[in-house]
Specification:
Layout: E1 4-7, E2 14-20, E3 27-33, E4 39-42, H1 46-54, E5 101-102, H2 108-125, E6 131-139, E7 145-153, E8 162-163, E9 166-172
Parallel strand pairs: 5-9
Antiparallel strand pairs: 1-4, 2-3, 6-7, 7-8, 7-9
């Protein structure tokens, strides 16, 4: 299950015992910290969506790279997926970066919509989401920026649990 991590409100300063092993002889000490922080789980999908959409997925051998790039990007750990090392079928991230700059705007909205849907489909396979709708639109000055809006519904629910409009850095290129 994906969760968001955040720091809780800091507690008061307090002393706690710890052992210093740096000198070769274990010495028990009391240390005072200024504030005590802890991690708190939130039952939202924000972190999972951000990592899924805005991490670069490795481009396949047939993908056309933008702007004469040669780097297929992606997470190095994807090299180990499937060959008996890891049974996951999901690659990390999305291929939104392949749409980064384009001279044609005819199909870039559909390619971006497909990239977002593909990046979030793991939520359907894992049962976290029951339905995912993705819309794309040109926005900003002179409609020069592409915005994507993933709307995620939990299984059996009619109200979305995630509905955020992301204005991406995808932009129309010059003619």
């Amino acid at each position: 299950m994906p969760f968001d991590w955040r720091l809780t409100t800091p507690g008061p300063a307090q002393s706690f015992p710890f052992t210093d092993y740096s000198s070769g002889v274990a010495v028990a000490l009391d240390a005072e910290v200024l504030q005590v922080y802890a991690l708190e789980l939130e039952d939202t999908l924000s972190t999972a969506v951000i990592l899924s959409l805005f991490s670069d997925r490795r481009a396949g051998p047939d993908d056309v790279l933008p702007m004469h790039q040669q780097d297929r990007r992606g997470w190095v750990g994807d090299e180990f997926v499937g060959d008996g090392f890891d049974s996951r079928l999901d690659s990390l991230g999305s291929l939104l970066w392949l749409c980064y700059v384009t001279k044609t705007v005819v199909d870039v909205r559909e390619r971006a919509r497909f990239a977002v849907k593909e990046a979030l489909d793991w939520m359907l396979r894992d049962g976290i989401a029951g339905r995912i709708d993705v819309t794309t639109e040109w926005t900003g000055p002179q409609l020069s920026r592409l915005a994507v809006r993933p709307t995620i519904y939990k299984p059996g629910q009619v109200e979305p649990v995630y509905d955020v409009l992301w204005a991406t850095s995808l932009r129309k290129g010059g003619a």
